[in-house]
Amino acid sequence: MTQTAINYGKVLYQLNVPKESILETQRLLKEVPELSKALENPTISFEQKQRVISRVFPKELHNFLCVVCKYKHAELLNEIFQAYQEHYNEQKNILSATLYYVTPPKAEQLEGIKKFLKKQYHTQAVALELKEDKSLVGGFIIRTKDHEYDNSLKGSIHELQQKLIWR
To answer: What residue ranges define each of the domains in the chain, with the CATH number in brackets?
Structure first.
């Protein structure tokens, strides 16, 4: 992530734009890739980009998106939204974590994992992203910004192999 994207992400947070507007903008850019291409395209005039922005995106983000396009940083929009989310979580004391699993965890298991992470990192909340990974064979892996908790069968087998090799 570039420093420019981080700076824009912090500015976006400071603008106090409703989270729903940001999510809607992200959804639009993801579902209609032509929008991103149009905003990034240097042959399309700034005025045309302004018209697209005012017609398509939530009103609260018009000025922000126009500034991003004016300074030719539209290719950073995904990074900007990612930087915004990281800054938002940091300011709200929310831990971001990813859970890799083979079989989807039950609600009680998810609550237990969140409770563990809250206690471990002294945070008020946990934003847990769930990703299926059949290569784990069994169990799960939890990744946070600075740590990995490997409770997978694949990890256990690898650990056992390492112990056997180094004897």
So the answer is: 3-88 (no CATH), 93-165 (3.40.30)
